[in-house]
Amino acid sequence: MNVDITERKRSEEALRESEERYRTLFASAPMAVFVCDRNAVIQYYNQRAVELWGRGPTCGVEQHCGSVKLWLPDGTLLPHAQSPMVEVLRTGIPALNVEVFIERPDGSRLPVLVNFAALKNEREEITGAITSFLDITERKQAEEALRKAGERFRFMAESMPQKIFTAKPNGDVDYFNQQWTKFTGLTFEQIRDWGWLQFIHPDDVEENIRRWKHSINTGKSFHLEHRFRRKDGKYRWHLSRAHAMRDADGQVLMWIGSNTDIEGQKQTERALKEADRRKDEFLGMLAHELRSPLSAISNVAEILGQQRTSDRETRLEQILVNLLSNAAKYTEPGGRIHLIAKQENGGVCLMVQDNGIVAAVKITKRLVLLAREQPCLADCSSLLILRSVSKIDDPILPSLDEQGTKS
Q1: Fewest beta carbons less than 10 Å away: which of 13, 31, 177, 178?
Q2: What gap in Å lies between CA 144 and CA 146, rounded to an integer?
Q3: Would you state the pLDDT for residue 242?
Q4: Structural domains present in the chain
Q5: 229-259 residue pLDDT tens
Q6: Which residues contact 389 (CB under 8 A, 6 or more apart)?
Q7: What is the strand order of the sheet 337-344 is part of?
Q8: For 300-319, how does the pLDDT look when each residue is reduced to its tens digit (9 = 90+)?
Q9: How far is the C-alpha of 23 from the C-alpha of 27, rounded, in Å?
Q10: How far apart are CA 80 and CA 63, in angstroms?
Q11: What is the pLDDT of residue 390?
């Protein structure tokens, strides 16, 4: 009896070609791959698996894995018989992204990422398992380098007297150094993310949020002077700065910021403003009060027979007001100012003496010389007065010495 087996032969040939393509793909795969049967016995593997194992296991004999030993990331030994493959062969459920270390014949350990999957026939029966694994040495080295960099940054931040923080690209603060907990008396968990708003002065909160969100949305640096509440309830001024750390493509990876206490600087600024205000008030009062002695001086000159014409008297009054005002301006609190009038060499000698700084005297002398030599430059009130004085006879022209005395 003759039986036509043409169809069967075609099926067998197709299966053979399919297996051949499968083995070619298997052998050329860039990652390590090996296949086990239902009993976890190794059936075949590719060249990349040999390179990572450091050996070629005996097919049909060895089980579970071609490595000498398996280790968990924490250094615990993982017996081959307890490999995740055993559970995959029992349940058919894949085990993905399992991180282990394979030990090679020379004793070295290689970190790998492993995926286990069950093989099934057309009846969905488990017939074996396929395992692929990838060398992740470079990734682990990068992670270790990043970990060490993080430790160095944390050590530096904890050692600094300034308050330091870092934030995620969306602005959530994920790190405060210990200076923050010392200052606020609050724990990291209380002030992380946006919890830090609780110690900002109420009058500064709205502007703080606006500026911080602007930086987050634009990537521009953050800069703001605002007040923080100390653990004793007192507010102190701080200068806060934050800059974005970016990757090679310019994307923000994180924010790094510092907060510097500037309360002392603010107090100094307030004191200077108050001193300037009081000084202006004093000079205004003094300018008013100094006009009274001028009438007495005019009377003295008249008694001495040296009264000048009305114009000369006006110029004399102007220069005396100028000299007395300068004397008051450059004399320290508690200093002395003397106004003296006497007859000398047939004329009236008027002297203003003080113990103020010599710099004022030198400046005044330069102004007198400038008024004489460059009258066209004398366009302010003080120089106009000095230019007028330069036209008066020498006995009236003030002489300036280097001891802080104006006469």
Answers
A1: 13
A2: 5
A3: 95
A4: 17-135 (3.30.450.20), 142-264 (3.30.450.20), 292-406 (3.30.565)
A5: 999 999 999 999 999 999 888 999 999 999 9
A6: 315, 319, 368, 371, 396, 397, 398
A7: 337-344, 347-354, 405-406
A8: 555 554 444 556 666 666 77
A9: 6
A10: 8
A11: 41
